[in-house]
TrEMBL record:
Span of domain GST C-terminal: 87-201
Enzyme Commission (EC) number: 2.5.1.18
Gene3D superfamilies recorded: 1.20.1050.10, Glutaredoxin
Designated name of the protein: Glutathione transferase GstA
Entries under InterPro entries matching the protein: Glutathione-S-Trfase_C-like, Glutathione-S-Trfase_C_sf, Glutathione_S-Trfase, Glutathione_S-Trfase_N, GST_C, Thioredoxin-like_sf
Keywords of this entry: Transferase
Recorded GO MF terms: glutathione transferase activity
Ranges annotated as spanning the membrane: none
PANTHER family named in the record: GLUTATHIONE S-TRANSFERASE GSTA, GLUTATHIONE S-TRANSFERASE-RELATED
Annotated GST N-terminal domain residues: 1-81
Pfam families (UniProt xref): GST_C, GST_N_2
Length: 201
């Protein structure tokens, strides 16, 4: 398999999960500014929308959208228990967390990265993010991970999205349980390996 990624982007979650599972894969770095791959090809020939992650399967098929890729990878190695089995309610609770992270956290960070976002709107978005992180912090006060008591694909995604706080100047200090969670996740060997590979450590 080949993972198309940009350092520190949401593709890092897929990279972490690949390392967690010990699956063989290669990396293809994408320049998100000009939408090119390292060899000069237009990345939009891989993903017409021009964003990462994209996962090229061994048969050449391309899978896009981070949550779908995370589920696909986890289902390849069910013994790793990164997602619960099909039919169990806990699987759909995990899916709910992925949807929450994608729509309530990930998307609300986007305006903070954009240089042309008005300051007034950035303040609105930051207030919205603070409320969402407060919800996450409350859950993590009673559980070491988002879903049950073990690491899952949702934890990888939350870790990556919360990394962006320092990049855009969003203060996570009001959320001590989230900060403790981040330390636990960062200590995982797979997380260290993926971040070192992307030049983030």
């Amino acid at each position: 398999m080949k993972l198309y990624f940009a350092p520190g982007a949401c593709s890092l979650a897929s990279h972490i999960v690949l390392c967690e599972l010990g699956l063989p894969f290669t990396l293809e770095r994408v320049n998100l500014r000009d939408k090119t791959i390292a060899d000069g090809r237009d990345f939009r020939t891989i993903n017409p929308l021009g964003y990462v992650p994209a996962l090229e399967l061994n048969d050449g098929e391309i899978l896009t959208e981070g949550s779908a890729i995370l589920f696909y990878l986890a289902d390849l190695v069910p013994s790793a228990h990164l997602v619960p089995p099909a039919g169990e309610v806990s699987r759909y609770r995990l899916l709910a967390w992925l949807n929450f992270i994608g729509s309530e956290l990930h998307k609300n960070f986007s305006p903070l990265f954009a240089k042309d976002t008005p300051a007034e709107y950035k303040a609105v978005v930051s207030e919205r993010l603070a409320a969402r992180f407060a919800h996450v912090d409350g859950v993590l006060a009673y559980s070491p991970y988002l879903a049950d008591d073990s690491f899952s694909i949702a934890d990888a995604y939350l870790f990556v999205v919360s990394n962006w706080a320092s990049v855009v100047g969003f203060d996570l200090s009001p959320f001590p349980h989230l900060l403790a969670f981040r330390e636990r996740i960062l200590a995982r060997p797979a997380v260290q390996a993926a971040m070192k590979s992307e030049g983030l450590l």
